[in-house]
Amino acid sequence: MNLNLEFLLLCALVTVLPAQQPLSLEKPPPPPVIHEVSPGVFQVGDVKLEKTARRISFPARLNMTNGPLEYLLVTTAGKTHESVLSTDIAPHHLQVAMLLLGAKGSQAAPLTNAPSGGPITQAGGRNPPLPGEPVVLEVSWTQTGKAHRRRLEELVFNRRANAPMTQGEFTFTGSRMWQGRFIAQTEGSLIALVTDPDAIFNNPRPNRDADDTWMVRREVVPPMGTSVEVSITLPPPAKTPAGVEK
After folding, report:
1. For residue 95, what is the DSSP state?
2. Residues 73, 211: Cα–Cα separation, whole Å
3. In a 10 Å sphere around its CB, with 0-12 CB exposed, 13-18 middle and 19+ buried, how is residue 224 labelled?
4. 1-37 pLDDT, tens per residue?
5. Using CA atoms, how far apart are residues 32 and 91, in angstroms rounded to an integer?
6. pLDDT at position 19, please?
7. Helix and strand tally (H, E) in the chain?
8. Sign for the pseudo-dihedral over CA of 203, 204, 209, 215
9. Are 218 and 97 spatial neighbours (Cβ–Cβ below 8 Å)?
10. Smallest Cα–Cα separation from 158: which of 204, 83, 214, 221?
11. Do residues 62 and 226 lie in contact, with contact meaning Cβ atoms separated by under 8 Å?
12. In angstroms, how far is the first alpha carbon of the chain from the final one?
């Protein structure tokens, strides 16, 4: 690993482990081992990072083929009873990889009380979207010899609208620390459909705080247990118009 990447990793960990760190003896998760597997392509634990494409990817599996959802992706230690996908990757590897791409999270204020864990629900959609960096989520798999690739939101049905979930970006918000623990690591929450300040990614769409909205889109998902690859792309930054100062 070159010195520039080591410096970036150090900066990423400073962002991951901000001043809300604990007055406890527990230690934060160790930084992932990073290998450059080819020019501009790195392995961050089990997460692949492609610098030029501004994309990360990792393995997961189809976890639900029917039923209500509050998450698109959790770890096997997370709320698997309400997530369409599950994965074995370490959540802090995912967050470090996003920070190494240059993504900026929500910059949440330091925690002063223990987090409640799980989504924030509110009738009527009064919670504003969490701030952060927009990302594009995709999922790919092979079934009966045929390759499939879809936007991840295509696996979800909006029960209130009686239509598939609208296509669009999700938000990299980043998770937080509490008493030496990276909360996404403890809770296993990675991509939330219903607002979860401790998930790494969140849904900015209307009804993001209504837990009776989202369902598995049964006619689209592959069979239970199918191995898939999740890809998360950070769109290029918007160009500043000529004559406008940054």
Report:
1. H
2. 16
3. exposed
4. 443 554 455 444 434 433 333 333 345 667 788 999 9
5. 11
6. 35
7. 3, 17
8. negative
9. no
10. 214
11. yes
12. 32
